[in-house]
């Protein structure tokens, strides 16, 4: 999977928008959305929200975790925990990036939020790399990677699987000689 | 020759992975190239090859006599060794002195010069008969296998760190000391890093026409 494909999947997540136009229910493949009435919040997929926002036909209510307080807490948790902390959404990086790029006026303190998101994802990436090294060097048989987001998995997938494959081949050849005696 | 590798034949992107089965991987070009590695061999006692003196450059004999020392390519040495017609010693990269260096710090060794198929050839050497004494032979193989694994694991850490951090930098400094297999893994890490950074910087938002359509001649007529 590619980063673009993961972003595409993230765009299916639902967000709440406050429209400024009237429209009946619209029927899409993924379901019915609406009806749209001015100042009446309704949930739509992220891609639709961004599209409406670009036409200045709605305000996006950012998800409840997309603010400085919640993210500071998550960052703290992530730093203190040895394992990966559960994130509010499996696509938190992508959703935050999309919203910050397209609807930064709907988010309070967008710059701080952007910095926090970057901090969290950096902390998690460092943890992931350290975990891989421990796993390979110390011959652990499994690694606990709960709460890893698809984005993070993608960043190490090809390298990690291939390396472990080759290592396995080396080890199985070596074991053959250990057992033949 | 029971190569049961999951790799499919691909010319566009070489993947010098190790042969998964005990034999060679028939479709792997890298495996094919690595089988030309020279192995220092010696013709066994009571064996001589008639009229093959010319393959040994430093003798003028018409026949290849017993106890002649010469370098043979891996593929030839392997089958002759199996028939007990020649005995072999390790190539330089697998000798005791090199192994001491590798166990001290594998990350500073230039495996490209000592390879460039260090692991692949190393695995092939495990299939040779290294010593007439069975126990000694097994002991030697076990030590070689251990060296290969240790080296790979300890170097992998450096490769992972560098391949996930170099961006838009000249990586030849790093890669010219790597074995072909390591180079491949390095490139995988680099590819992922590039894609991630391109995504983060929003390069992917611009949808480009496929080069196939923009180069197509039919459309350029008007």
TrEMBL record, chain A:
CDD domains: GINS_A_psf2 (cd11712), GINS_B_Psf2 (cd21694)
Residues spanning the membrane: none
GO cellular component labels: CMG complex; GINS complex
Claim: Glycoprotein is one of the keywords in the record: no
Domain GINS subunit: 65-163
Domain DNA replication complex GINS protein PSF2 N-terminal: 3-61
Name of the protein described by the UniProt record: DNA replication complex GINS protein PSF2
Organism name: Amphimedon queenslandica
Lineage summary: Eukaryota, Metazoa, Porifera, Demospongiae, Heteroscleromorpha
Automatic annotation (TrEMBL), chain B:
Subcellular location: Nucleus
Lineage: superkingdom: Eukaryota
InterPro entries in the cross-refs: GINS_A (IPR021151), GINS_bundle-like_dom_sf (IPR036224), GINS_Psf3 (IPR010492), GINS_Psf3_sf (IPR038437), PSF3_N (IPR055221)
Domain DNA replication complex GINS protein PSF3 N-terminal, chain residue ranges per copy: 27-80
Domain GINS subunit as annotated: residue spans: 94-195
CDD domains: GINS_A_psf3 (cd11713), GINS_B_Psf3 (cd21693)
An annotated GO BP: mitotic DNA replication initiation
Keyword Protein transport: no
This protein's record includes keyword Transmembrane: no
Alphabetical keyword list: DNA replication, Nucleus
Chief localization: nucleus
Name of a matching Pfam family: Sld5
Gene3D superfamilies: 1.20.58.2050
GO cellular component: GINS complex
Family classification: Belongs to the GINS3/PSF3 family.
Subunit note: Component of the GINS complex.
Purpose of the protein: The GINS complex plays an essential role in the initiation of DNA replication.
Protein name in UniProt: DNA replication complex GINS protein PSF3
Organism: Amphimedon queenslandica (Sponge)
Primary gene name: 100632021
């Amino acid at each position: 999977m590619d980063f673009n494909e993961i972003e595409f999947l993230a765009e299916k997540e639902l967000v709440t928008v406050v429209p400024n136009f009237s429209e009946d229910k619209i029927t899409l493949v993924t379901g019915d959305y609406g009806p749209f009435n001015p100042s009446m919040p309704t949930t739509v997929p992220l891609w639709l929200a961004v599209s409406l926002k670009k036409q200045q036909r709605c305000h996006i209510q950012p998800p409840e975790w997309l603010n400085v307080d919640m993210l500071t807490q998550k960052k703290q948790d992530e730093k203190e925990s040895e394992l990966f902390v559960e994130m509010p959404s499996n696509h938190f990086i992508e959703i935050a990036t999309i919203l910050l790029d397209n609807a930064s006026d709907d988010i309070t303190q967008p710059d701080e939020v952007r910095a926090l998101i970057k901090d969290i994802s950096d902390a998690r990436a460092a943890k992931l790399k350290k975990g891989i090294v421990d796993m390979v060097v110390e011959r652990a048989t499994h690694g606990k990677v709960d709460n890893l987001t698809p984005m993070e998995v993608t960043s190490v997938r090809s390298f990690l699987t291939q390396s472990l494959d080759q290592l396995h081949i080396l080890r199985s050849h070596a074991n053959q000689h250990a057992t033949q005696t | 020759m029971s190569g049961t590798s999951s790799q499919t034949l691909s010319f566009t992107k070489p993947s010098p992975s190790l042969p998964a089965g005990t034999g060679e991987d028939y479709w792997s070009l890298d495996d094919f190239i690595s089988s030309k590695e020279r192995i220092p061999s010696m013709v066994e006692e009571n064996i001589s090859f008639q009229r093959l003196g010319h393959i040994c450059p430093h003798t003028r004999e018409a026949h290849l006599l017993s106890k002649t020392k010469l370098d043979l390519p891996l593929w030839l040495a392997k089958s002759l060794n199996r028939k007990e017609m020649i005995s072999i010693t390790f190539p330089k990269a697998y000798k005791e002195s090199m192994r001491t260096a590798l166990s001290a710090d594998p990350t500073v060794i230039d495996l490209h010069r000592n390879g460039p198929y260090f692991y692949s050839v190393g695995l092939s050497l495990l299939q040779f008969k290294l010593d007439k004494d069975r126990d000694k032979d097994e002991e030697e193989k076990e030590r070689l296998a251990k060296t290969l694994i240790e080296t790979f694991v300890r170097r992998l850490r450096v490769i992972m760190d560098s391949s996930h951090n170099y961006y838009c930098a000249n990586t030849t400094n790093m890669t010219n000391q790597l074995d072909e297999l390591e180079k491949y893994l390095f490139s995988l890490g680099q590819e992922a890093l590039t894609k991630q950074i391109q995504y983060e910087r929003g390069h992917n938002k611009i949808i480009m026409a496929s080069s196939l359509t923009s180069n197509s001649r039919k459309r350029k007529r008007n």
